[in-house]
Amino acid sequence: MTSHHLPVRVARADLAATAVAAGIHPDTLRKFVELGLVTAHVDTSGRLWFARTVPASVRTIVRLHSDLAVNYAGIALVLDLLARIEQLEQHRTIRLEGDTPWT
User: How far is CA 100 from the centre of its chain?
Assistant: First the structure.
C-alpha cells in the first residue's frame, strides 16, 4: 500500500504582520523571541515567521509586563503555568465527558 503525503500549510505571519496584530514594534517582538517568550520559525532566508496565535500571547506578555510589572523571567514562568492550567482543564473536561456516573 502506498502512502501519499501532502504538504501541510501552517497558518503563519511574518514579523511585521505579527507585530502589527499584537500592537507592538517589530524590535520588541524580536526581543521576545530572543528571550524565549515567543516561538518563531526561521526560513532559509532568515526571516521570522509566527503562528497566528502569537499576537494573543504577545498581548498577554505586554499586559503582564506593563500592568502587573512582572519581569521577563517571571513572565516565562507565568506563561508556563498558564499553559499547564489549560492542559489540566482540557484533561479534566475530557475525563468528565468520558466518565460514567458511579451511582
Answer: 34
